[in-house]
What we know:
The chain is of the alpha+beta class and about 290 residues long.
Amino acid sequence: xxxxxxxxxxxxxxxxxxxxxxxxxxxxxxxxxxxxxxxxxxxxxxxxxxxxxxxxxxxxxxxxxxxxxxxxxxxxxxxxxxxxxxxxxxxxxxxxxxxxxxxxxxxxxxxxxxxxxxxxxxxxxxxxxxxxxxxxxxxxxxxxxxxxxxxxxxxxxxxxxxxxxxxxxxxxxxxxxxxxxxxxxxxxxxxxxxxxxxxxxxxxxxxxxxxxxxxxxxxxxxxxxxxxxxxxxxxxxxxxxxxxxxxxxxxxxxxxxxxxxxxxxxxxxxxxxxxxxxxxxxxxxxxx
Length: 288
């Protein structure tokens, strides 16, 4: 972390870290690490070493007054360690606090069949940490963590709903990192699911009526061509509704979060296509 040691004492200590995770889509998020540190030395500090722990895409480092800070690699063998330079006139004076923000982006892959994203957070045990997670717009979400985390931090506090998740982790007396994993599951709001249910219901009801009609006609009398044509027209209308709903959610990249229900929806659609094809063949056979 942003800590440097003199010969006998710690000269730059992290007091608090706040992590802001904002999902722009269920797989792409913007991250801000807000680090508040205090200068415990007797000298003004104008540069500091920082260990990124892993690659940070599109990294920007900003001072508390909004000024972009310069940073570069160090001579250390650790390729993830950088040196952050402060303006000479804005160094951290003795016993004073300073906050810097690291902004970057992450693209995380969904776990197959689970629609779960795993966020890895490198918690610095010496500092107090606050973690704020916000879902992508138009989605609800759930965030879970291991039971071991609760046991390890009995004073940990959480505040969560379908639209936000906040967590507080107290500091310890250890100068170490701990990797914390949060499992994030994005879900479609009930209003979006309702459209899928309506489309699937239309398709299922139409299939039942057509199958019932065909069964009755074959076992009792000859098939009425006019009725068949009417069923074809209605079937095409139902298919149009199914296509519009599916295309809309596909365009919004929301179909991934329907899980098995999306496969059921597709099965209903293909059953409608097959049924209309059979009816049209019967119409042609009747006319020949």
